[in-house]
Known about the structure:
Elements: H1 14-41, H2 44-50, H3 54-65, H4 72-86, H5 99-121, H6 124-127, H7 132-153, H8 157-161, H9 170-194, H10 197-204, H11 207-218, H12 225-243
Helix pairs in contact: 1-5, 1-7, 2-11, 2-12, 3-5, 3-10, 4-12, 9-10, 10-12
Amino acid sequence: MWIFSEPLFLRVPRGDYLLFLASGVIGLGIGDTLFFKRLNRIDAGFSAIVAAMYSPSIITLSVIFLNERLTLTQIIGVLLIITAVLSTTRIKHGEKIGRRDLLWGILWGVLSTAATAIGVVMIKPTLEQTPLLWAIEIRLLGGLVSLAIVALFHPLGRKMFSPIFSARSWGYTVSSSFLGAYLTMFVWLAGMKFTQASIASALNQTSTIFIFLFGTLFLHEPITSRRTLAITLAVCGIFLIFFG
């Protein structure tokens, strides 16, 4: 913000500060926590398919609260994405994940995408009128404060903070936080700021492809015919939503 001569605090109504702080609490404090709970239950490949619920969540909230409208093509796309998610609920013999973990993973995944969707749709109208860097700053502050309060009262709070003080984990912590949280939020909110939420969310869902591929390349997760079908349905649904 110093590089771009942006002020840390704007002279805006107090309600704007409270709105973006609440967005950080819901979208980051709650949404990201549930996202990591999902990753603890299911691997990146399954997680990417479940994450496809993000676009339908955004679209539904946009229709209700932002008066955006869906075409028939987009509705078909939403149904394809939901079908892709439902197709992952059956475990085949030989896969390294239990049905209980899969169902809990799907539940945490759906809730995390819902929290993320709520956190961004609630600020969409105000975001269009405010500087992007300031919006990110206040939103990150809301997420940071809410998680810090939880950690202070959590019985394992000291253990939660221990990786911060471990030099061995700094590489992962700093790089993933800067790339996966800060830079990602910058371009993500920029998309939300300058176009319709439903279209931006459909473009965001291309992350599903990258998670699936990187999970295979770096985590050596298996490519099964059912996963391939699910990811194909999800991607087709994403493009129908976008082109619709």
